[in-house]
Amino acid sequence: MSTIKACIFDLDGVIVDTAVYHYKAWKRLANELGFDFTEEDNEKLKGVSRTRSLELILQWGDITKTDAEKEELATRKNKWYVEMISKMTPDEVLPGAMEFLETCINAGLKTALGSASKNSGMILEKTGIAHLFNAIIDGNKVTMPKPDPEVFLKGAEALNEAPGNCVVFEDAIAGVEAAIAGEMKVVGIGSPQVLGAANLVVSGLNEMSLEKLENL
Ligand code: BG6
Ligand code: MG
After folding, report:
1. How far is the CA of 46 from the centre of ligand 1 (A)?
2. Does the beta carbon of 111 lie inside 6 Å of ligand 1?
3. Omega of the bond prior to 147 within 30 degrees of 0, cis?
4. Residue 46 has what pLDDT?
5. Residues 96-103: what's their mean pLDDT?
6. Which residues pair with 202 in a beta bridge?
7. Of the CATH numbers 1.10.150.240, 2.30.30.210, 3.40.50.300, 3.30.950.10, which one belongs to the domain with range 19-85?
8. How sure is the predictor about 154, in pLDDT bands with cuts at 50, 70 and 90?
9. Which residues surround ligand 2, an ion (CB under 5 A)?
């Protein structure tokens, strides 16, 4: 029998598809610096913090910058990203996400957000789903990026549940690793080839059910 009492959800790629906005903003920055990167490269940025993403992109362009310059570049990218997410609507919640959150809540499970993003507040507000979470742990509340388990452990703590009673939903390899490091169950959202370390992999929350949760 399952001991699951709480569900912790990553945001980007699990509840909303913001990867395309991150991609557009990073690509604009790279183009201004005189180079480009592919959508395939962009996959490597999923789940990765803003600072680390910038470092990877500068490496791809073979560009060296001082810490102060990096700070300015990350701020510039974030300004463009925020311009895009400020126009998001409830339609942009991924299929089945809202329904599965409501299913969990109706079944008496607690819910938390566990995201690396410092922009989660705006995304939740624009898509109208903030009320579906008992706790929100995001990039503003953690110091260690995934695959460190800090974000999920803080989520479990905020929900007052032991990590072993929590299941994490994640689309990024770093996030699956973080959940495992936190000794939690994890459902991968995406491809089994990429997220094979998860207890279960589904293509989206529209494929989830309470039965699948109980059988983890
Ligand atoms: C993660 C995204 O959820 O948040 C990453 O998958 C992103 O691509 C990271 O870099 C940080 O987001 P933000 O909104 O704080 O720049
Ligand atoms: Mg994600």
Report:
1. 7
2. no
3. yes
4. 87
5. 98
6. 189
7. 1.10.150.240
8. very high
9. 10, 12-13, 47, 171-172
